[in-house]
Design goal:
homodimer; about 290 residues; alpha/beta; Arc Repressor Mutant, subunit A; D-Maltodextrin-Binding Protein, domain 2; 3 domains; five-stranded mixed β-sheet; about 25% strand; DNA-binding
Chain lengths: ~290, ~290
DNA sequence: GTCAGCATATCGGAAAATGATATGATCAAC
DNA sequence: GTTGATCATATCATTTTCCGATATGCTGAC
């Protein structure tokens, strides 16, 4: 077994430039540093650094091993961090990223009971329709709706996100109801600028349908409002329209020959496996709400 | 410092169900297992497992710590693996994934000198236009062309991939040369099924241009052939067309008001930081070739 | 109630890490 | 060229830790 203290000497020695300097930084005797490095090399059966009295230089093996040593030490620190009280329980700060629509419709209503259930937890929601770099923005969790992907190693699937075409009753009264996919050309379709096509399922196949659009916006909320106001037909997640549907402000449309492709809701965490409890709890809360 | 041997006892004990079983698996005395676990708990200052005589159960802290312990042990194994002779030098098997076009045009010509320079290395190229799950398919390296992304943490940028519109001289003689973006509507544009739009740069802004396409294919090679045969205008990476341009079979088009967005070439590795030498060498070879 | 399996306490001995000093080697400055 | 400072490491006594074997208290099954 590799001794992490030995690995630490290696890393320090390389960055500090000499074993003596490393020993000073680590607060140990120079010989201890020397012995630890020797022990590591003995354990691995390879010479890691070439030592001339004045300068250290990594051998090829050392070059290959060093990043792993660094990773091990980081892993050790991470393991300890996982035991800090604020990481252990549901306390501290939880930063969640989600799209604007998802934040409003799903996360918003879910927060009061969640916060009540975990009094020591603070939640910060980063609502943005742009992709987020988890690590860079210090986000603990990002929730995205998107096409069904298989690389479940990177993201955890929280549930389905069925989608439909929606329009307002006024619009339908004026323009009629489309029956088939082909009928859509005679209608005003409202699209997201970044998504100029709609994906339909036709007996198992995905059809990439380019949409004739007179109005497009980069915000799905904008589309949503325009749709309610009768501007045309929008393609939205069901959870984004349920309230208006029950209120009679929007009507879901079904075509005879095609259904809108169902998307998935995905939870993305910086490291998919080492998920702290607070994140796990929040993900569970979202998942529960999605199943309602 | 966490002792990895201690962590190993924890992991074994949890999977085996008892310290005694773990000790048998690890080939150590039962008490040694007990002591190591105790030492780990002392080191961390937390109780990790609740021990009743009959069954072990993880405490909350243990629950949080266990995945980190597993990660540490995996890291240790990975660190050792990095020193195996075949991982150290440029030897063994290197599995590379790339698109069909990229494999043919860039990787293919690069391979003979590369293989000659590293005689102990075997290379397996996985040419596919689908995305690949690196870990699942045992791929050491995937090379993808795509939009310029900033999340450099996941992928390493190998170079630019400038792109242009191309057409055959015969097609241009028959149909004329488009001068402006708007002229494209009068032309036959050849698109990839998965990419039904072309991205242009117009004074700093990206324009998502939906393309009127009478012929689309899921293979860029197919498009390429059709384009040479005079079927219309295709949007391709320059490296995919140079040979035909020098041979006079294709002509690059420039529009007055828009240029095709330049893409990047990205190298994606299973773990972005712990890159084995053989992968590093290959990436360097690709990068060098791209700069020619 | 008996017994088997488990976790762990105890303790002598072995092994390993440590501390202080010493040695040879290298580079810089005079 | 010589001196001195710095460095890596050897040596050895000491302390600390680790290990092995036996022993003890406990729990659940038969």
């Amino acid at each position: 077994m590799i001794n992490l203290a030995d690995a630490e000497v290696l890393v320090e020695a390389v960055t500090a430039g000499s074993l003596a300097a490393a020993s000073r930084r680590l607060g140990i005797a120079p010989m201890v540093a020397s012995r630890r490095l020797a022990a590591l090399e003995a354990e691995l059966g390879v010479r890691l650094v070439h030592r001339t009295t004045r300068a250290l230089s990594l051998t090829t093996a050392g070059e290959a091993f060093l990043p792993h040593a660094r990773a091990l030490l980081e892993g050790e620190a991470g393991a300890r961090a996982a035991l800090r009280p604020e990481a252990l329980g549901a306390s501290g700060l939880l930063r969640v990223s989600a799209s604007n629509a998802f934040a409003r419709k799903i996360i918003g209503p879910l927060l009061p009971p969640f916060l009540a259930a975990h009094p020591a937890l603070k939640v910060e929601v980063l609502a943005t329709d742009h992709r987020v770099d988890l690590a860079a923005d210090g986000v603990d969790l990002a929730i995205r709706a998107g096409r069904v992907l298989d690389n479940s190693q990177m993201a955890k699937r929280l549930g389905d996100s069925p989608r439909h075409l929606y329009a307002s009753p006024a619009y339908l009264a004026a323009r009629g109801q489309p029956r088939r996919l082909a009928d859509l050309v005679d209608h005003d379709c409202l699209t997201q600028t970044s998504l100029p096509y709609w994906d339909f399922m036709i007996d198992g196949h995905v059809l990439h349908h380019r949409v004739q659009s007179r109005l497009s916006a980069n915000s799905i909320d904008m589309i949503h409002e325009a749709c309610v106001a009768g501007a045309g037909i929008a393609c939205m997640a069901d959870w984004n329209a349920t309230r208006e549907v029950t209120g009679g402000m929007l009507v879901p449309l079904t075509l005879e020959d095609a259904v809108v492709e169902t998307w998935g809701i995905w939870a993305i965490t910086p490291s998919p496996r080492l998920v702290p409890p607070k994140v796990r709890l929040f993900v569970a809360a979202v998942q529960e709400r999605l199943q309602q």
